[in-house]
Write a structure and sequence with these properties.
Structural class: alpha/beta
Low-confidence stretches: 1-35, 112-122, 153-174, 265-270, 635-639, 912-919
Strand order of the largest sheet: 5-4-1-2-3-6
Radius of gyration: 40 Å
Number of strands: 25
Largest sheet: 6 strands, mixed
Number of helices: 33
Strand content: 5-15%
Shape: elongated
Distance between the termini: 102 Å
Mean pLDDT: 80
């Protein structure tokens, strides 16, 4: 960029730096919108009975159509993940969709009779359309009919002579159907039949909405719901983590905003607030709305591309260099002034410079674009000064792809036309003087209206009667109403004290009454209206014309501004990751293709923030080598040998000892490493992991016709069906939802299944309280199986239950034989008698004694009461009870048979009871 251009930029920045700092730091794009249109995400989903899933969705704020590659045997878990990623506001399905898909989507859809939110973060409207809208050929035709610029520049295709002759005969042009089809195939996978059909359904929905909102000849209809870009998404290069995994690991978690005025109708709106989550640790560190969106996308789609992961790690490392600390701090301050240009451009296309929800010019479209143009050049220069930035992809893209001349040109055009000082005073967009001679002349006349109106009032005083002069106050000008004469109000009559009496043919028409004055339109005022006109409206009309011309010129640089905005969002997401790594004292992990997870001093990123101190733990497991061991030939990293370890680690130990936290922290470290982030560990070597499958949290809901145990079984079955040798499987107390015998059997079978996979064995971490599985040898010994437990210190001499067990939260090898459940119960307020009884039964179980006989044995208190009852019975037997006398009339008194009672009592207290057996 030449020196003249740079000096101009510096002057403009100095002019508006104070003005820019007065505005709010960040505004969510949804908050800037003047309606829900910009917040729309329209998704279409199709599924076959075999489980194959296709999906496409349109993001209004991005004006982008995204297609997901067809995935075979995916099931409802993938549908749930897609909904979580896209957060649609409308979901479209075919009327021939499988029942299980319809039932699942209906459970999370908006209802007419109630406001019911779904289990995932978002509530959507569910629409069912005919199956013809999901037709593959129809969808392909709709894609071909889109603007050809979406698929890049035209290319020359060579065909045979016969084909050329046929094309010539048919009058085919260079941009014919075959040419479009070939260019379309370079951007999307035409073999994804379901997704292309879904794309056709989405495009049809956009056309339907466009027709409903705009008239056929409305020029704005062309810009409404348009598609500027098409993206093909694939899960092949991303780690798979379904909604259960994201919820169990607390990667993303939103809640209603505590401020009632900021609460949206559901969690998908801007009224939602990020709860305690891993993403929430970084979200507040991002300065821009596009940076937060990019960061969320990174957290939802961890990468399996080692080159991309290493590039992100290098970027964070460069940003955290001590010599770059000042540059980093200045970039954060500049990013806080950057708004999402896409929202401003969309408003500009509609001709809206001050959206309805924005009351201040400082937050209007022109101020946002002006500030963006000014700050963009500063940011670009700051990136150029980064030490080591010349080797970073994001730095080179910011420097090379952002066109400074285009950005500066936009800023200069806006600065030369818009008068922000006058705009803020009048609370509307005003044009600077010197832009248009006609406008300047009108403004000059408008500014001189005060002196002119004084002269008009003096002329009027010469015409009206002398007695009326004290009642005629002055003459004023109101936009659209024109020139008016102000007369004092007579409170008795409610009319003016003077209404043109003595003036022949001059009718004084009352326009309105306000604050003790009556405003009249008379002959002189009408003449002024004709001669001078409505100056203010003329000024506004001329300014609208000039601003419209300015908007047309600015939109000519739309692509350059949007590209710069997206790059700054990506840069902002990297800065957030760097600031988080520095803030939480995380370290860079070493990534490898070796199927291992080796962690030293690992910590849970959330747990360590809410406890006074956190005990770090190690982990070392490896997965199967697969049918092609050469894929794992990368046995060392930086010259350090990576040792092998077990494929499965089973944790036992007391409740509250930290087993679940340990499982989650290992998974989170693996997950963060695939994002490209630093991790909470002293050292970590992480092999590429394609899936994280969990059986940890049971997400129950009244909208699901499933019990807690059936949900656990479904999660376990999904892990078994979709596991690979590069997967990480977490199992926490599986089987606890049924009786102990069945639960132990299910847990044993699940662990044995993973161990039996041989070379395809996944990396597995499990926690269980079913000690009988290991004590009785139900799970055979295996080289890939290792045991560990969380250490505790037990002091049985103390009488205080809370001091009997001290949790050390330290992982040590070997098994634990007790869960200390009774002590945990006492610590949580369970009655001591219940705890003592439970401990006695546990000891009996450990000795394999008969619980039925033990439970039938009487307690000391019951023995004492029984002895007292026996003594009473013996005394009763020894008593001589006479026979009752006859009643009058010869009838005997009806009494119990005493001899029968004596006989029964003798049997009960006979010496046979002396054997000690309980009755």
């Amino acid at each position: 960029m030449d020196q003249v251009c740079l000096r101009n930029v510096v002057q403009i920045i100095d002019k508006f730096s104070t003005m820019a700092s007065e505005s709010s730091d960040t505004v969510h794009p949804q908050g800037e919108a003047d309606g829900d249109t910009l917040c729309e995400t329209i998704m279409a989903i199709d599924m076959k009975e075999s489980g194959q899933v296709g999906c496409a969705y349109y993001v209004a704020i991005e004006e982008a159509l995204c297609l997901q590659e067809d995935i075979a045997m995916a099931g409802m878990e993938l549908v749930e993940t897609l909904l979580l990623h896209a957060q649609p506001t409308t979901v479209i399905i075919t009327n021939r969709a499988p029942d299980k898909l319809i039932e699942y989507l209906e459970s999370g859809a908006q209802r007419v009779d109630s406001d019911q939110s779904s289990d995932i973060n978002g509530v959507y409207a569910l629409r069912t359309v005919g199956s013809s809208e999901f037709n593959y050929n129809a969808g392909k035709e709709r894609l071909l009919n889109l603007n050809s610029e979406l698929f890049g520049p035209q290319s020359t295709f060579f065909t045979s002579v016969a084909e050329d002759d046929m094309d010539d005969a048919a009058g085919a042009s260079h941009d014919g159907k075959q040419s479009k089809l070939m260019r379309l195939a370079t951007h999307i996978n035409l073999d994804s039949h379901l997704s292309i059909g879904c794309a056709g359904a989405v495009l049809n929905e956009l056309q339907r909405r466009q027709a409903a909102k705009y008239l056929p000849d409305d020029p704005d209809a062309i810009l409404a719901f348009r598609v500027r870009s098409i993206k093909m998404l694939s899960l092949a290069d991303s780690m798979f983590a379904n909604a259960d995994t994201l919820a169990a690991l607390q990667i993303l978690s939103s809640e209603s905003h505590p401020n009632g005025q900021m609460q949206g109708p559901d969690k998908s709106k801007s009224g939602a607030k990020e709860n305690l989550s891993v993403y929430g640790l970084f979200k507040f560190l991002a300065s821009t709305s596009q940076g937060k969106a990019r960061l969320r996308q990174m957290f939802l789609r961890p990468s399996l591309d080692l080159d991309l992961i290493h590039e992100r790690q290098r970027t964070i490392s460069v940003l955290l260099r001590p010599e770059n600390s000042q540059v980093l701090s200045s970039m954060v301050k500049m990013l806080r002034k950057v708004k999402n240009v896409k929202t401003s451009v969309l408003h500009l296309r509609k001709g809206v410079d001050l959206p309805s929800r924005i009351r201040s010019v400082k937050k209007g479209v022109w101020m946002a674009l002006s500030r963006f143009a000014l700050v963009s050049i500063e940011l670009r220069e700051a990136v150029r000064t980064l030490s080591g930035g010349e080797n970073l992809a994001i730095a080179s893209r910011v420097v090379n792809e952002i066109e400074p001349r285009d950005i500066v040109r936009v800023g200069e055009m806006i600065h030369s036309v818009i008068d922000f000082d006058q705009s803020m005073e009048s609370n509307r967009t005003a044009v600077r003087r010197g832009v248009n001679a006609e406008l300047d002349d009108l403004k000059h006349k408008y500014d001189g209206l005060d002196d002119f109106l004084s002269q008009v009032a003096a002329r009027l005083a010469q015409v009206i009667p002398e007695w009326a002069c004290e009642y005629v106050q002055n003459c004023i000008f109101y936009p659209q109403l024109g020139f008016l004469t102000v007369v004092s109000l007579n409170p008795e009559t409610g009319r003016g004290n003077y209404e043109g009496e003595g003036l022949v043919g001059d009718i004084w028409e009352t326009m309105f009454v306000n604050e003790g004055h009556v405003y009249y339109k008379n002959t002189m005022m009408k003449e002024l209206d004709e001669q001078v006109g409505d100056i203010f409206c003329m000024i506004v009309d001329k300014e609208i014309e000039i601003i419209h011309e300015l908007g047309t010129k600015v939109l000519g640089h739309e692509d350059a501004m949007i590209a710069a905005s997206d790059l700054f969002g990506e840069l902002d997401s990297f800065i957030a990751l760097a600031l988080g790594a520095e803030r939480y004292r995380w370290t860079i992990p070493r990534m490898t293709r070796k199927n291992v997870v080796k962690i030293q001093g690992g910590r849970h990123p959330l747990q360590e923030l809410v406890v006074p101190s956190f005990i770090a733990n190690d982990c070392g497991i490896h997965g199967g080598c697969g049918a092609r061991p050469e894929e794992d030939e990368d046995m060392s990293i930086d010259g350090e040998e990576v040792p092998n370890g077990p494929s499965m680690l089973v944790l036992t130990g007391p409740n509250h000892s930290g087993k679940s936290v340990y499982l989650k922290q290992v998974a989170l470290i693996v997950y963060l490493a695939h994002i490209g982030s630093y991790v909470p560990a002293e050292q970590a070597t992480i092999g590429l992991t394609d899936r994280i499958l969990t059986r940890i949290a049971t997400r129950e809901s009244v909208s699901r016709s499933e019990s807690a145990f059936s949900i656990d079984l479904r999660q376990a079955a999904f892990s078994m069906n979709f596991v690979t040798r590069r997967s990480l499987v977490l199992i926490d107390e599986f089987g606890k939802g049924t009786n102990a015998n069945n639960g132990a059997g299910l847990m044993t079978a699940l662990l044995d299944h993973f161990l039996s996979l041989g070379e395809e064995t996944p990396k597995t971490l499990a926690a269980s309280h079913f000690h009988e599985i290991f004590e009785n040898g139900f799970l055979e010994e295996d080289d890939n199986l290792a045991f560990a437990h969380m250490a505790v210190r037990v002091d049985l001499e103390t009488t205080d239950p809370e001091n009997q067990v001290t949790y050390l939260f330290q992982l040590v090898p070997g098994r634990s034989t007790s869960s200390f459940g009774s002590i945990c119960a006492a610590m949580n307020g369970v009655d001591s008698a219940v705890v003592d009884r439970a401990e006695a039964l546990v000891l009996l179980l450990a000795r394999n004694e008969d619980l039925q006989a033990a439970c039938a044995k009487l307690s000391d208190e019951e023995e004492r009461k029984l002895e007292e009852a026996e003594a009473v019975a013996r005394r009763f037997i020894e008593m001589d009870i006479p026979t009752p006398p006859l009643r009058r009339g010869g009838m005997q008194r009806v009494t119990p048979d005493v001899d029968l009672f004596r006989h029964m009592l003798r049997d009960l207290v006979s010496p046979r009871r002396g054997s000690g057996s309980s009755p």
